[in-house]
Write a structure and sequence with these properties.
Layout (H helix, E strand, L loop, with lengths): L8 H30 L1 E19 L6 E14 L5 E5 L13 E7 L6 E3 L3 H43 L1
Antiparallel strand pairs: 1-2, 1-4, 2-3, 4-5
Helix pairs in contact: 1-2
């Protein structure tokens, strides 16, 4: 009696394609974050104006519409060479910004328009890690599912051959 039955090639390709896409996008997001952090310089920035991106969603518990959004401030900052630059933040900020307010930013040394709020590990590295982790977990999970399916198919075929 055979221990396993090999699944068709199209099924194996299809089942590994989605985790592979997650791993690919996680790796690309990681490289993008790494490129920014490697060339990032800290600076103090002053908010000149704020762009608000409106969003609404329905709360699943209360079934009410919750209105919230993201703030993208346009800031003015002085780089390490003493030149003044103006740019909109690359990512939304975690506070409600007001014109004239100052906060810490990171700017890309070679591309001065790439600016984001200076914060820690979470916003810089979590998206790449989550996507990459989902891809790896999905690939391992699919491997286990395929093994159990092939063992179940082998038992079914053995039972059919034995009774037939």
């Amino acid at each position: 009696m055979a221990d396993t039955v090999t699944q068709p090639l199209w099924m194996r390709i299809l089942m590994y394609l989605i985790p592979g896409i997650f791993v690919l996008f996680g790796a690309l997001a990681f490289l993008d974050s790494w490129r920014f952090v490697r060339n990032a310089q800290p600076a103090e920035a002053e908010i000149l104006s704020v762009r608000y991106v409106y969003k609404s969603r329905t709360d699943t518990t209360t079934k009410r519409t919750v209105e919230n959004g993201d703030y993208y401030p346009t800031v003015r900052y002085q780089d390490a060479a003493g030149d003044w630059w103006q740019a909109e933040t690359h990512l939304p900020v975690f506070f409600e910004p007001k014109a004239g307010q100052t906060f810490e930013i990171l700017y890309h040394e070679e591309n001065r328009g790439w600016v984001q709020e200076r914060h820690g590990f979470f916003t810089t590295w979590m998206v790449p890690l989550i996507m990459f982790g989902l891809g790896i977990a999905g690939a391992l999970g699919i491997r286990l599912v395929l093994q159990s399916m092939s063992r179940a198919d082998a038992k079914r075929l053995a039972a059919e051959r034995g009774s037939g």
